[in-house]
Amino acid sequence: MFENVQGWQVRAPACSTFTRGLTQVCHATVEGDPNPSTRHVPMGRKPKTGILLLNMGGPESTADVHDFLFRLFMDKDLMSIPAQRKLGPWIARRRTPKIQEQYSRIGGGSPIKRWTMCQGEGMVRLLDEMSPQTAPHKYYIGFRYVHPLTEEAIEGMERDGVQRAVAFTQYPQYSCSTTGSSLNAIYRHYASRGNPPAMKWSVIDRWPTHSGLVEAFAHNVHKEIECFPEDVREDVVILFSAHSLPMAVVNRGDPYPQEVAATVQRVMEKLNFSHPYRLVWQSKCGVKMIRRADSLNDNPTFIQAMADIVKTHLEEKQVCSRQLPLCCPLCTNPTCAKAKDFFVGQKP
């Protein structure tokens, strides 16, 4: 996922038409039931389709920071460091106080679970209307480094008797270190049990140029540009700021840089190339005069896009994209190929 900036600058996702009902649903989700996904399954009915929302996750409170960092630094799909079994826990302990302090400055924790619940709630409401033949739908959250973990979500899907499971990455641009890590976790879960899954699995593994995503980003960028004084508005430079990858990962052939660039291209097309722009990669320091466009969060256009993506995926009856079976040309992780084979071998 990327953001945007301007030079005078702007950074962000985007939005479009706000639907009052959908916005109210999101607020009810955030403030009310801690497990709101169950509210979309009528009493006595089991969910037919489960959508597993895959993401890294973030610590909800400062007390969660150490465990988050521990799992992160122990994930060899995300990073490979010497003597990782010993060095990973040491780095996690050493960095915990500093990261706790940083989270304290923004309210004490990450809002990612709250927003994922909001997005999932809106998505399944739309899907129940858009795709009644695959309803009832229920969303599940599968984080890599904090609860609810991916493995915990799968167990919940099995308890609910889900018939069809869709692994829906929340990273629009594919990377072996993000989406790949989550898919590997699903494969390892079943491999460790030695039993084939009872659910039929399929994967939405990337969506960097989906029209709803592009529209949402473009709207938020344009809205933020309009906040600049008219006398400098034409001088604004848009900076698309993406999370960086180690060059070792890029050199293995990870598709992430190309897919981020594809998103940038589509967003600028939507904006009619109204301003100069650059794709830049996040680092520890940068320019100060920046306005940040709003994140997508409860943006109805974005949530509608999520529902559209899942609906199209269910209708096409494909287990994954044509890209997923391809390993990076210089891949060094044998689990990647096994995980890809696992999903490709699922029957739609």
From TrEMBL:
One of its GO terms (molecular function) is ferrochelatase activity. Its main location: mitochondrion. The keyword Chaperone does not apply. Pathway: Porphyrin-containing compound metabolism; protoheme biosynthesis; protoheme from protoporphyrin-IX: step 1/1. Pfam families: Ferrochelatase. It is a peripheral membrane protein. It is found in: Mitochondrion inner membrane. Transmembrane segments: none annotated. GO terms for cellular component: mitochondrial inner membrane. It catalyses: heme b + 2 H(+) = protoporphyrin IX + Fe(2+). PROSITE patterns: FERROCHELATASE. Its EC number is 4.98.1.1. Catalyzes the ferrous insertion into protoporphyrin IX. This is Ferrochelatase. It comes from Eptatretus burgeri (Inshore hagfish).
